[in-house]
Design a protein that fits this description.
This protein folds into 2 domains: about 1-160 and about 345-375, Rossmann fold (3-Layer(aba) Sandwich), CATH 3.40.50.2000; about 185-340, Glycogen Phosphorylase B (Rossmann fold), CATH 3.40.50.2000. It has a 7-stranded parallel sheet, sandwiched between helices. The chain is elongated and about 80 Å long. Helix 3 packs across helix 4 (about 90-100). Helix content is about 45%, strand content about 15%. It has 14 helices and 13 strands. InterPro entries: Glyco_trans_1, Glyco_trans_4-like_N. GO terms for molecular function: glycosyltransferase activity.
Length: about 375
């Protein structure tokens, strides 16, 4: 198949990070893929695509503005795809309309368990224009079927993380020793409200005031609209135990430098960053939302942050800080779990199931067009 893959931007978030692996799976099955980005945004994903040799176009000359549907449709026409694949709401709406006009089947990702109300209403109204919905986790698959009223037969799962045993491993926390060792805790994600990173800053202020003898340092890796607010908050509180380190181009090395990982999100899909930390052998503290509630085994591979308050998070961080054996045990169990559940063979099997469904869509549509019907034929 010739596949045009339409995505909102190449910003570098959770929808863009797995692109090289996704395209590699498609190529391994003999398909040709061209990525169309509606905007560049920060462009952190551009280097990943270039390194993987993935053909791509950025359709808007303004990094912060999305291309129009007219521009997008013209680009899709130029590449004459057999299949249109979409990622994120704007790209999906554009892809759905292009699919109708060009009479091509459409496959659409769902990455998150939560859709903004307006996006949910839009996709609910247009969901039948996508022939096959692909969720990044079983949890998101259930949410997609429920929120968009998509028949379960038209939703399939392709986990967007592939474990790699060769990636760097963390050195387990050995304890405060003479009091000079620092327990390094980190997180990766967009600096946006859903990640709830303000809670982390409040927690570090609580630790400074109530447990000053414990040397715990928090690093927040990521970019986003809340960065100025967080810098102001950190300065106002006079915190020297928090760093905003910006976008991390190498999340594997970043995670391997941690003793603990924390993700206090209000909602999540698969949460690739959590998987990267677990693969590195790092114990995690997460809110039990989205797929994180299925991935983390409370007390075995990590700890659940519930309720999500500064005092509760501080107590969990102190629990890890005071118990190096627990850290080592949880980190090792987390790594074993990820390498077992997300190994290349398992992900490849699931990816090929999805691609076979997509091939059937193309074959069915082509047959209908040759017969002169030209109508949309959904796979059953």
């Amino acid at each position: 198949m010739r596949i045009v893959y339409i995505i909102n931007s190449l910003n570098g978030g959770g929808a863009e990070r797995p692109l090289p692996d996704i395209v590699a799976q498609m190529r391994a099955c003999g398909h040709d893929v061209h990525v169309l980005a509606l905007a560049r945004k920060a462009g952190n994903a551009v280097a990943w695509l270039k390194e993987a040799g993935i053909a791509h176009d950025i359709l808007s000359p303004d990094p912060d503005q999305f291309a129009s549907f007219r521009t997008t449709l013209a680009a899709v026409r130029r590449h004459a795809p057999d299949l249109i694949w979409t990622s994120l709401t704007r790209a999906t709406l554009y892809g759905q309309m292009a699919g109708v006009l060009l009479r091509r089947p459409v496959v659409s990702w769902q990455h998150n368990a939560y859709l903004r109300p307006w996006n949910r209403r839009l996709l609910h109204a247009t969901h039948s224009l996508t022939d096959l919905w692909v969720a990044d986790s079983r949890f998101v698959a259930k949410c997609t079927a429920r929120q968009l009223h998509v028949p379960q037969r038209d939703v399939i799962t392709w986990p967007l993380f592939t474990a790699q045993a060769r990636m760097p491993q963390a050195v387990p926390w050995t304890g405060p020793g003479d009091g000079r060792a620092v327990f390094r805790v980190g997180t990766l994600g967009r600096l946006e409200p859903q990640k709830n990173y303000g809670l982390l800053i409040q927690t570090m202020a609580w630790l400074r005031d109530h447990a000053p003898q414990c040397r715990i340092h928090l690093d927040i890796g990521g970019e986003g609209s809340l960065a100025p607010q967080f810098r102001t908050q950190i300065m106002a509180l006079g915190l020297d135990n928090v760093t905003l380190s910006g976008f991390q181009a190498d999340p594997f090395t970043y995670c391997a430098g941690l003793h603990g990982y924390v993700q206090p999100s209000l909602f999540e899909g698969l949460c690739i960053a959590l998987h990267e930390a677990m693969q590195a052998g790092v114990p995690s503290i997460v809110t039990p939302v989205g797929a994180m509630a299925d991935v983390v085994r409370d007390g075995e591979t990590g700890l659940f942050l519930d309720p999500a308050t500064p005092e509760r998070l501080a107590s969990l961080l102190l629990r890890l800080y005071d118990d190096p054996a627990l850290c080592a045990r949880m980190g090792a169990a987390a790594r074993r779990q990820i390498l077992s559940c997300y190994n290349l063979d398992a992900i490849t099997t699931q990816a090929r199931m999805v691609l076979e469904r997509a091939e059937h869509l193309v074959a069915t549509r082509t047959g209908a067009m040759r017969a002169g019907t030209g109508h949309r034929t959904a796979i059953r």
